[in-house]
Amino acid sequence: MNTKWLIKDAPDALQVENLKNEMNVSEVVAYMLVQRGITEFDDAKSFFRATLKELHDPFLMKDMERAVERVNIALEENQKILIYGDYDVDGTTAISIVYGYLSQFTSSVAYYIPDRYEEGYGVSEKGIRNAHENDFSLIITLDCGIKANEKVDLANSLGIDMIICDHHTPGKELPDCIVLDPKREDCNYPYKELSGAGVGFKLMQALAQTNDWDEGALFENLDLLAISIAADIVPVTGENRLLAQYGLKQLNEDTRPGIDILLNLAKKEKPLTLTDIVFTIAPRINAAGRIDDAKKAVVLMTSNDETELREIAKTIHEFNDERRTLDKEITEHALAIVEEDPDFDKKCTTVVFDESWHKGVIGIVASRLIENYYRPTIVLTQSEDGKTWTGSARSIKGVNVYDVLEKCSTYLEKFGGHYFAAGMTLKNEQLDDFVKRFDDEVRKVIGSESLIPEQIIEKELPFDSLFNMGESVFEVPRLMRVLNQFEPHGPNNMKPLFLAKNVYAHDAKLLKEVHLKMKVYQPNFQKHIEAIYFKAPEALEIVQNGPFDMVFTLEVNQFKGRTTPQLMVKDVRPHRG
């Protein structure tokens, strides 16, 4: 797939020089800090060494006082509290945090996760009626509920109060209950991009401060919060970055038993990054809800019974293997449908559907299709009643898929989500009109340039500036060790991309016929540096035919107990001089 190379604007040279001298760091590090708006020593210190004291006051969130008051009434009167969460990673980690913490202070708390296939996403009528039948007085929703107006009305009619903790974009009218959502238009909370688990965490933080509970016990759940931030693809900036920093530290240094067993089954070694969570932990937790029962994921994250955990972890691991098989089969089927569409090249979107596809993996398939075609994508499958289609949308930079769906809402029974991901349900007879309208609305906000993925490059970085005098290419250089402190990386804080020009390859070869492995050097730096370019067999000819330009990230390769620097190549082009 062709990509567009965009080099960020250079920051102010004087600010870079001043910060470099004040911090005693390299020009590259100072350059990147100023590029991120960090120009003062104290700001840089906070970026690298922030403390949990810098977390925002939870009471800055609209309705937080009301929420705390209502939970405390339930605790004082021993009312039954139901924690209601979604079945994905964000939802199950949120339940694990809130249920796990609250259960230290009351035995009258339970949790509920809707069945993906019987009830679908979000608050269900079955869930509300189940709460009523079991005498629950208060429902706290996590990662769902912001558009569940009718379900909240039902709960109100049954005498059940609700507190909604959500991070999705609200509809035009808020549900008639206590609503915690930083995306509320009337909410002045300083950080708008918390995960669903993050909103639940802030409620627990507010309760801890009000009731003088042990906040340290709450912070022991930051590993789960880091998992939610990684899995839900929320921006890794501001408060999310701080929470993820401490969460990753805990995940690596004091791994909870269930996650540790899961990592062993996956043969994944620590230390883990947010990327490792996305590709190793998140799919396995998700597999529980996609293939069977998401409650298993909550038990995995909250139990200390080793026998129980080994059994559940093994089951979840097997679910993930089944999920991968379904993912592969449906992706191949979807790709074939696209290839057979004679009008595909005229469209700005990819929309595919089949009544037999497994509902649990269509979101993953949508992401796979974007990897191939890079355009807003929807994958739909038939609902169990045969009367509606249910689907998952994934999007690209420049297209807010939630906004697009809102403009298509005439054809939808329900929808919800955020910028890059959403879900929807529509009646069978609306399918053709919806598909056309979706493409029309995307076309209004996108140009042909937007359908070309971008490589956003920090700066040109010649190989000789990677290593200080005397540093070996077989040892991780100081620059890389410092740049590692820019982690954790994720949306809006991606791993830095660099550009090297006039590069030559030595010993270039394909591994398993698809992955390009080579050693690279430049005329003014003859030492050979290890480099790898995954899934790029077509690049072999380019690197073998003379000098080329290369976009790359700096990585650490750990193999047989040895740690060495490695360049992870993202794109190559013939050098034009």
TrEMBL record:
Gene Ontology molecular function, alphabetical: 5'-3' exonuclease activity; nucleic acid binding
NCBIfam families on file: recJ
Protein name: Single-stranded-DNA-specific exonuclease RecJ
One GO BP annotation of this record: DNA repair
Residue span(s) of domain DDH: 80-227
PANTHER family (UniProt xref): SINGLE-STRANDED-DNA-SPECIFIC EXONUCLEASE RECJ (PTHR30255)
Domain RecJ OB residue range list: 478-571
Annotated signal peptide: none
Residue span, DHHA1 domain: 349-443
Source organism of the structure: Brumimicrobium oceani
Annotated gene: recJ
Pfam families with a match to the protein in the record: DHH (PF01368), DHHA1 (PF02272), RecJ_OB (PF17768)
UniProt entry keywords in alphabetical sequence: Exonuclease, Hydrolase, Nuclease
Entry's family note: Belongs to the RecJ family.
